[in-house]
Design a protein that fits this description.
Largest sheet: 9 strands, mixed
CATH topology of the largest domain: 434 Repressor (Amino-terminal Domain)
CATH class of the largest domain: Mainly Alpha
CATH architecture of the largest domain: Orthogonal Bundle
Number of strands: 9
Strand content: 25-35%
Structural class: alpha+beta
Helix content: 25-40%
Number of domains: 2
Shape: elongated
Length: 244
């Protein structure tokens, strides 16, 4: 099946509707709908939205996932969710008469949208924050054992590098640094720091006398020595997403 075809079939079964019922309600040929679900026909996104809306799927879930998010992450959900694994591994059923399709839905226990249920538990919409900590975009990241990179998913965010002051450390303007909470200096780490009313990505060198060196490297290496109590540490960069 195609991703959208799989989603349409899943929601049709959840709604306990036959292909004929959905086709009639949406004004399309039954044969076309069956082909879309089987993945042998390509369906435009706007038409898929109309069909799913007619079936009863809301445009967005409570977790604010759009149809594009759902369709684009079906494979990830299949890998990450035990429920989805079971469905993905199950052999394709033999064609059944329309009357039997609705009945088999109850027997298999399709009580809710498999992909929507899986997405809300394994994916998190992580915000991309600019230099003034305003969200400008988002990325979908998998949640593992209730955490992202060992941190509370609600506390994790991407920071959009505003300049090239860290390119000597391989962080260029426009790159995205994944930040996890850390409120004390971590020696040797790249951290998001507030100092002198400004916010910076800096490599931190911790000294023994309650001071730190905030290191940067644009065209040349630079370092500022600061008292720890003069700095606010917002988090540690654990991953970098670069633009090519």
């Amino acid at each position: 099946m195609s991703r959208l075809g799989d989603l349409i079939r899943t929601e049709r079964l959840r709604a306990k509707m036959t292909p004929k019922q959905v086709a009639k309600k949406c004004g399309v040929a039954e044969s076309y709908l069956v082909a879309v679900e089987a993945g042998t026909r390509i369906i435009a996104d706007d038409q898929a939205r109309r069909i799913l809306k007619a079936i009863g799927l809301r445009e967005q879930t409570e977790a604010d996932f759009s149809l594009d998010d759902i369709a684009a992450t079906v494979d990830l959900a299949a890998v990450a969710s035990p429920v989805a694994k079971t469905v993905a591994a199950r052999p394709a059923p033999k064609p059944q008469p329309e009357a039997e399709v609705v009945a088999s839905t109850d027997e298999k226990g399709v009580g809710g949208s498999i992909w929507l249920d899986a997405l809300t538990s394994v994916l998190k919409r992580v915000p991309v924050m600019n230099a003034v900590m305003k969200p400008v975009d988002y990325r979908l990241l998998p949640i593992q054992s209730g955490k992202i990179e060992g941190a509370n998913p609600d506390k994790v965010f991407y920071y959009l590098a505003p300049d090239d002051s860290m390119r000597g450390f391989r962080i260029h303007q426009g790159d995205l640094a994944l930040i996890v909470p850390a409120h004390s200096p971590i020696d040797g780490s790249v951290m998001l720091v507030e100092y002198n009313s400004h916010r910076y990505l800096r490599k931190v060198k911790k000294l023994a006398d309650f001071t730190v060196i905030l290191q940067s490297f644009d065209k040349e290496y630079d370092a500022v020595t600061a008292q720890i109590n003069e700095c606010t540490f917002l988090g540690r960069a654990v991953k970098l997403e670069v633009s090519l």
